[in-house]
């Protein structure tokens, strides 16, 4: 069963055709510039359409988890619900608080949205379909993931509202706390692949996916995914923007199209985090029979559905539980993971483990699951034992004291 | 592609703007930000030298020594900004001001 | 073609860097200075990309705009001041500062223009990450460890200084 090779690089073929056609009537440089602009437009439109499909999928899946149906009025199966939402947001009145700093207020959604769009430039959709094949791909992604924090602080401050300011500061504290485990959890993968380029990491997984790396792989995936969910302010880490909290968060004063930009940024970020996780841990475009980009989108979507599943199932974390998780649990685990990865790689065990065939991969997966469960349970027990032996109260017991001590 | 001189002049301009900021502003946080600007100007100069000049020779050198120097500058700038701002916050708790001309006496 | 794009990119980012830097020192409100600082530091990262320092550019965005600017924003939030306080030093000091800055700029530009620089035959345009990593772990190991110690000391010191008690 073969797929015609033209499907493998559809976008590239269309771009080459366009450049040829434009080159017939325009000078060379101008044709290239125009094709680049058209490419950027296509990419942004692709992101927007993707986000619309994500919103639909999320609302339907969350609804089914919560034993209801979800949108089913607008279009067949509610497929046009996102279109209706977009139209509603576009036609809403644009309210700016009277004492707000207008320029900062207007720029904040852009500072949150543009880095999410920039991440799409380095995603390897196929072995020859990356917009920019950077040598420092994963570092570029992590650097861009730190920028929306500034936008959130800007939004909180510019709204001239005590509650948005507090919400913005709490959101910023959460985001910077989860940056450290996120960066550290990516280090073992860079170590295994020997390169920081996303294309290189995906193509280094030809034999076996990095999530199957003994012990290091699943732990790194869990840490990265959790930190990624926290970075994009999704449930169960969405305290800064929760609709059911009194402090509605940093985007309380935003309405209409400005709010739509925040909304778009959250889902574009969700797609980026899933896509990066798919590239780092699940082999990116590697797959059989189907073209590479189909596998990439399928894997990313499956990871996004895992995010939706987590959102529908787990309760929201309280603020101090959130900070505890980042600094006291995920950071030591991430550091230990890096150490373990370096030791195993140096001993040559990594190459050995990842070089087995099919049966080996399944056996590795089983061993990994057992080891990870033992590790997490053991860490939990060790932590409790250490605290009890030091005479300190356990984590659950400290919370009421912290609540009572707050003025 | 502009030559070495253009990059060096850019670094010098940023550095001098930083100097003006440190001398002419009263808010100590703005002075710290101007300090960061000065360090950035120096970094631009270092990286421009790295790219355009003949590589250093010798056993204790590397073709990217300029960029590594700039990385150390970034690390030390981060450490210094952290400590400077912590001091600012600590002083604010006592004096309730961040204007430098109101914090110029050691005693009340 | 690439040359033209590189030249245009340099001028665009050089202008945004200088505008950002001027905004930092001339803006009346501290928050606006912080916003201009983001612009200046981001444009500097773009200049690094033009100078083929890819690793350094991403580290600049990661550390400077992603961490130090947020630190500055937190400090601004924790030290609220009334806006009516004078933002600039008294007039004489402003003029003196401008004279010093301009004199230094003239001196440095004169130094740049005189004397030929020992230019390499070919500008250094290689991928940097691997070489920088190797350099950190072999030639420059001691400064590397010392830098991590400096950061540790800064971390502990900042926590101690900024505590509520």
Q: In percent, how much strand structure appears in the residues of chain A?
A: under 5%
C-alpha-based Rg of chain A, rounded = 23 Å
DSSP summary: helix tally of chain C: 6
Q: Biggest interface pair, residues each?
A: B-C, 75 and 88 residues
- Helical fraction of chain C: over 70%
Helix coverage percent of chain A? 55-70%
Sheet with most strands of chain C: none
CATH-level-4 superfamily name of the largest domain in chain C: NADH-ubiquinone/plastoquinone oxidoreductase chain 6, subunit NuoJ
Structural class of chain A: mainly alpha
Order of helices and strands of chain A: HHHHHHHHHHHHHHH
What ranges of chain C have pLDDT less than 50 throughout 5 or more consecutive residues?
A: none
Question: What is the molecular shape of chain C?
Answer: globular
| CATH architecture field of the largest domain in chain C | Up-down Bundle
Look at the structure and give the CATH class of the largest domain in chain C.
Answer: Mainly Alpha
Overall pLDDT metric of chain C: 89
The arrangement of helices and strands of chain C along the chain is HHHHHH
Assembly status: heterotrimer
Give me the count of strands of chain C.
Answer: 0
Low-confidence stretches of chain A: none
Strand content of chain C: under 5%
Please, what is the average pLDDT of chain A? Answer: 83
What would a concise description of this structure say?
The complex is a heterotrimer of chains A (407), B (108) and C (165). Chain A is mostly helical and 407 residues long. Chain A is built from 15 helices and no strands.
Q: How would you describe this structure to a colleague?
A:
- The complex is a heterotrimer of chains A (407), B (108) and C (165).
- In chain A, 69% of the residues lie in helices and 0% in strands.
- Chain A is mostly helical.
- Chain A starts with 9 loop residues before the first helix and ends with a helix.
- Chain B is built from three helices and no strands.
- Chain B has one domain: Helix Hairpins, CATH 1.10.287.3510.
- With 108 residues, chain B is mostly helical.
- In chain B, α1 (4-24) packs antiparallel against α2 and α2 runs antiparallel to α3.
- Chain B has helices spanning 4-24, 28-52, 65-95.
- Chain C is mainly α and 165 residues long.
- Chain C has six helices and no strands.
- Chain C starts with a helix and ends with a helix.
- Classes of the chains: A mainly alpha (407), B mainly alpha (108), C mainly alpha (165).
- At the B-C interface, α1, α2 and α3 of B face α1, α2, α3, α4 and α5 of C.
């Amino acid at each position: 069963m073969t797929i015609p090779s033209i499907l493998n690089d559809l976008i590239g073929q269309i771009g080459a055709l366009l450049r040829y056609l434009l080159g017939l009537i325009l000078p060379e440089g101008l044709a290239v510039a125009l094709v680049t602009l058209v490419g950027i437009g296509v990419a942004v439109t692709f992101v927007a359409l993707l986000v619309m499909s994500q919103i639909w999928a999320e609302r339907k899946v969350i609804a089914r988890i919560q034993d209801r149906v979800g949108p089913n009025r607008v279009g067949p199966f509610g497929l046009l619900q996102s279109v209706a939402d977009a139209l509603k947001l576009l036609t809403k009145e644009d309210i700016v608080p009277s004492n707000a700093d207008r320029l900062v207020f207007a720029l904040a959604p852009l500072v949150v949205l543009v880095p999410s769009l920039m991440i799409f430039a380095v995603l390897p959709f196929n072995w020859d379909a990356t917009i920019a094949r950077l040598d420092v791909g994963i570092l570029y992604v992590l650097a861009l993931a730190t920028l929306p924090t500034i936008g959130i602080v800007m939004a909180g401050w510019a709204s001239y509202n005590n509650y948005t300011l507090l919400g913005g500061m709490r959101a910023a504290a959460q985001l910077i706390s989860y940056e450290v485990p996120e960066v550290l959890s990516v280090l073992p993968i860079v170590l295994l692949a020997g390169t920081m380029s996303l294309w290189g990491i995906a193509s280094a997984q030809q034999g076996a996916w990095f999530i199957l790396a003994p012990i290091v792989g699943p732990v790194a995936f869990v840490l990265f995914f959790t930190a990624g969910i926290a970075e994009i302010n999704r449930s169960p880490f969405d305290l800064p923007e929760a609709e059911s909290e009194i402090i509605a968060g940093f985007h309380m004063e935003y309405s209409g199209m400005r709010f739509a930009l925040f909304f778009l940024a959250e889902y574009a970020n969700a797609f980026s985090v899933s896509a990066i996780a798919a590239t780092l841990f699940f082999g990116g475009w590697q797959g059989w029979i189907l073209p590479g980009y189909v596998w990439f989108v399928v894997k990313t979507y499956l990871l996004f559905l895992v995010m939706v599943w987590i959102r529908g199932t787990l309760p929201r974390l309280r603020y101090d539980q959130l900070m505890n998780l980042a600094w006291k649990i995920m950071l030591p685990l991430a550091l230990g993971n890096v150490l373990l990865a370096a030791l195993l790689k140096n001993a040559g065990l990594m190459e050995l483990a990842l070089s087995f065939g099919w049966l080996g991969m399944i056996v590795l997966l089983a061993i990994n699951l057992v080891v990870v469960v033992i590790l997490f349970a053991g860490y939990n027990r060790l932590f409790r034992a250490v605290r009890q032996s030091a005479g300190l109260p356990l984590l659950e017991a400290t919370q009421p004291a912290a609540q009572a001590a707050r003025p | 592609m502009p030559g070495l001189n253009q990059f060096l002049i850019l670094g010098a301009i940023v550095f001098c703007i930083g100097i003006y900021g440190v001398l002419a502003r009263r808010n100590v946080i703005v002075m710290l930000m101007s300090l960061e600007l000065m360090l950035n100007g120096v970094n631009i100069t270092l990286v421009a030298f790295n790219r355009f000049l003949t590589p250093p020779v010798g056993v204790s050198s590397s073709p990217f020594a300029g960029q590594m120097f700039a990385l150390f500058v970034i690390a030390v700038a981060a450490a210094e900004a952290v400590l400077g701002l912590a001091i600012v916050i600590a002083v604010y708790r006592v004096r309730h001001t961040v204007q430098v001309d109101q914090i110029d006496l050691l005693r009340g | 073609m690439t040359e033209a794009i590189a030249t245009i990119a340099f001028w665009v980012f050089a202008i945004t860097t200088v505008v950002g830097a001027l905004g930092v020192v001339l803006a009346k409100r501290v928050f606006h200075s912080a916003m201009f600082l983001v612009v200046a530091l981001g444009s500097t990262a773009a200049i690094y990309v033009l100078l083929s320092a890819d690793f350094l550019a991403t580290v600049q965005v990661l550390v400077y705009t992603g961490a130090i600017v947020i630190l500055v924003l937190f400090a601004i939030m924790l030290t609220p001041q009334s806006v009516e306080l004078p933002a600039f030093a008294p007039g004489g000091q402003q003029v003196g500062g401008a004279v010093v800055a301009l004199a230094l700029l003239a001196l440095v530009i004169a130094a740049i223009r005189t004397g030929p620089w020992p230019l390499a035959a070919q500008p250094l345009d290689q991928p940097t990450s691997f070489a920088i990593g190797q350099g950190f772990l072999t030639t420059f190991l001691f400064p590397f460890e010392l830098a991590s110690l400096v950061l540790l000391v800064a971390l502990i010191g900042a926590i101690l200084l900024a505590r509520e008690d």
